[in-house]
Amino acid sequence: MREKIFEAKDVVIKFNLRGHTLTAIRGASIDLYDGETLAIVGESGSGKSVFTKSFIGMLDTNGWVEQGEMLLDGVNIAKYKTEKEWLKVRGKKIAMVFQDPMTSLNPVKTIGEQIREVITYQFGTDKAQAKKEAIELLRQVGINDPELRYKQYPHEFSGGMRQRVVIATAIACRPKILICDEPTTALDVTVQAQILDLIKRLQKEMDMSVIYITHDLGVVANVADRVAVMYAGQIVEHGLANEIFKDARHPYTKALLMSLPQLGVKGHELHSIKGTPPNLYKEIKGDAFAPRNPDAMKVDYEYEPPFFKVSDTHYAKTWLMSDKAANYRAELAKAHEQTEKIEPLPPKDYSNGKKLVSVRNLYVNFKLNRKEFSAVKDVSFDIYEGETFSLVGESGSGKTTTGKAIMKICHTSSGDIYYDGMKVNGKMNNHELTEFRKNVQMIFQDPMASLNERAKVDYIISEGLYNFHLFKNEKERKQKVIDAMHSVGLMEEYATRFPHEFSGGQRQRIGIARALAVEPRFIIADEPISALDVSIRAQVINLLNRLKAEKGFTYMFIAHDLSVVRFISDRIAVMYKGRIVELAESEELFLNPLHPYTNALLQAAPVPDPDIERGKKLVVYNPAMHDYATDKPAWTEIKKGHFVWANEREADEYRKILK
Amino acid sequence: MESNAKNNPTPNINDIPDALFTRAEFHEELSEEAGFSNYSYWRSTIRTFFKSTVVKVIVALLIALVAYTVIYPMITDRDPYAVALSAREWNLPPSAEHPFGTDGVGRDIWARVWFGTRTSLLLSLAVAIFEVGLGVIIGAIWGFYRKLDTLMFAIYNTLTNVPSTIYLVLIAYIMKPSIFTIMIALVATGWISEARWFRSRILALREADYNIASICLKTPPKRIISRNVVPYLVSLIIMDVALTIPSSIGSEVFLSFIGVGLPADLCTLGNLVNQGRSAFLVYPYQMICPTLILCFITISFYIIGNKFADASDPRNHV
């Protein structure tokens, strides 16, 4: 094992919030070794960001380190009080890359100046020299034409490029430790893979230790040597990446790994974690995860467990590992064995059924800076009754715009959209519109923005009932609200509460109940789980699947995450720059991806298995690879039900591949 | 709810009874409850608002002052309009009997100030409510129907580009001077800026997901405005009313000052300041006393309005 270069011991961090003193970090310890990559995994509110921010003295003004030590080069930096002291550490020894590259650069300064400033400020280098170094840094983080780019402003860079610039400023002072706080969460999957690659390369070149903070287990599998899992302000388990992924011991880690949609068996429920993560207002007694753990022991509610050793590198903070729990452990293992191995259900073919939604040659044009561009280009597809159809693509691919156009909340430029034989785009008479709105509902991405904060849950769910006069009397309305709440797993007492009292996952379920109450037939779900915590996602996916089985809904699922889509959908369409490039039955698409963009997307999506992730090669899709000058592309059926956007020559090649 | 876990210190593992290492009952409600937050927008707003001592003092003084204007006419038998026939009662300096002295015809200024404050406060409150109310309603409609933009902007430009003094004077000339006239004059000039301000707020809210969700449910615009949009503006409306009160008192004083305000024999702060002005060089207190009250009222409403605006911003709820 290499030398220990940083150590945090029993750190307790408190906050003053609205008159209360809250404990955000309840005694967390961590070691960092020279040259390693450590990933801290946790959900929002687990305290992972707060914990690492305290390493560079960047807690918000209402927070402070109450107790504990942080040893860097033998100095306890937790004692630092003034900015001046922190400046000795911040940037020079420990640097940080933040989540959102849009907000961490100054928009009115050229990026070159911003990097140069850091260098002259920290080392007192003269300007000309610093400029040279800055250009060298830009080259190092993989920016082409660094001399030219040096003079440009942040708005001239794409999201991924900006994150590269942010990384360049972070490594400008050659820090020993680089903390990356969700460095790729705001980026597309294909860009994410490139950034992760870059950080890995820089780490080797500069011999840094890197701490990743993330909620994405796929990213962790890709980058981490060691993993620490945080829950409710404590590290609950830490060990080598393989130990955590293959041999997790803490019930929370286990449940988290089991609930990943990547591991789900099609046609069956995902393993889901009940409830929601605790927020800081709650008093925590014993094991913080116990209330959500159906297999918790009585002792978990009473006393906080200590760390138990699994191996020299692997520790877990759970009573389950104690000798006294040996009997209970055996009991659980036996119960686990008895759960039968489940086989995936064969894919269902809906194409003989009724076409519920048809989109024909849809174009949606927007004007941007007086230039017109098509967000959606010549998109056509059918959705059959009862199936789950997914639209996958990166940001800017036009997937959400297509969804909104079908929902009739966005204009269309040309083409037709039909729902159950009715033409949707263009004028509809009042009767038709009522019929359409009643039958087609939407679930929104951000549960924080999609509920009316000033109305009670009762009103929110009843909104559609009022609009379509779906009840005879007050009693019937109440009953319908209660039914809708029960079907999304909410208790009826919650009807009198306001949305702000709920957590993200609960709010998303309220949103689903609102759509459900009017008994629609077709539901458009616009990234319904991407804003949710990892432990909540499985709940919502299961809920959507259960409702489909019970009520016969037809779904259109919009997503950027292929792993979720595979589990839930019957057919998948991949969109790129406004165009559908490939459409196939879901398993078929994963087994035989044809279009190079689909391939790149599949490769880029991180898989929560360190063995697979480490051997992975980065595939970058370059649209220039297609030679469409003479041989024009067209929508071609390569195999029954498997369509690709390709020209004659490419189509022939694809046919060969499938044979 | 303190979260500093009053955790039982974990005893030595051997001391923990074996019976505890068995399955505990699972309560689904408990797992759901963990995520609840006790954050309440209004509670936090009010707490943040009253955190500052300045606000506490000003609110206390203002309540006392308003209460006094209500109580005073009940507890005194002094008539603010009573003229003294004897010249000995004219232009008296402040004394125990007349705290603010008397004016040129022997009327007690103390009594007149309190009656005047009451009239002016009522007038300005009425103006503020009508102006902001009209502004919210029209602003909401304007924000929701983009087709109105051309028309409304034409009205806005016309009304705001001509100095408001001109309409105020015109309206005051055309109609008989009365409280009602002043109200119409002030509301007529003020509503459009309010409407435009609320329009921009509503435009920002209109595109929010929860409103799109209501559109998807075919909620009529009327209910979207009343249930989804206006409740979000309540704190802004309160702040706006608080800021409109001092400016309408100011306008009333100004109009009275140039002689087109309320009838000169009515007790208002404007008339009092105006009457005090003529005798200012000889008997300065006749103007200074009403002006002090006027300044206190306007300044405190401004401070309260601004502090409330800060407090109602969720970013300040720390």
Describe the protein.
The complex is a heterodimer of chains A (659) and B (318). With 659 residues, chain A is of the alpha/beta class. Chain A is 34% helix and 24% strand. The longest helix of chain A is centred in the first third of the chain and has 18 residues, at 189-206. Chain B has helices spanning 28-33, 41-49, 53-75, 109-144, 149-161, 164-174, 179-206, 209-216, 221-257, 269-278, 285-311. Residues 1-6 of chain B have low confidence and may be disordered. Classes of the chains: A alpha/beta (659), B mainly alpha (318). Chains A and B meet through strand 1, strand 2, helix 11, helix 12 and helix 14 of A and helix 1, helix 2, helix 8 and helix 9 of B.
Number of helical stretches of at least 4 residues of chain B: 11
Low-confidence runs of chain A: none
Q: Look at the structure and name the CATH superfamily of one domain in chain A.
A: P-loop containing nucleotide triphosphate hydrolases
CATH class wording of chain B: Mainly Alpha
Q: Please state the average pLDDT score of chain A.
A: 89
Estimate the global geometry of chain A from the Cα principal axes: globular
Q: What CATH architecture of chain B would you give?
A: Orthogonal Bundle
The overall strand count of chain A is 24
Summarize the main sheet of chain A. Answer: 8 strands, mixed
Question: Share of helix among residues of chain B?
Answer: 55-70%
Give the class of chain A from helix and strand content and strand pairing: alpha/beta
Radius of gyration of chain B using CA atoms only: 28 Å
- The CATH superfamily label of chain B reads MetI-like
The CATH topology of chain B comes to MetI-like fold
Q: Termini of chain B, distance in Å?
A: 16 Å
Q: Which range best describes the helical content of chain A: under 10%, 10-25%, 25-40%, 40-55%, 55-70% or over 70%?
A: 25-40%
Looking at the chains present, what oligomeric state does this protein adopt?
Answer: heterodimer
CATH architecture name of one domain in chain A? 3-Layer(aba) Sandwich
Q: First CA to last CA of chain A: what distance?
A: 50 Å
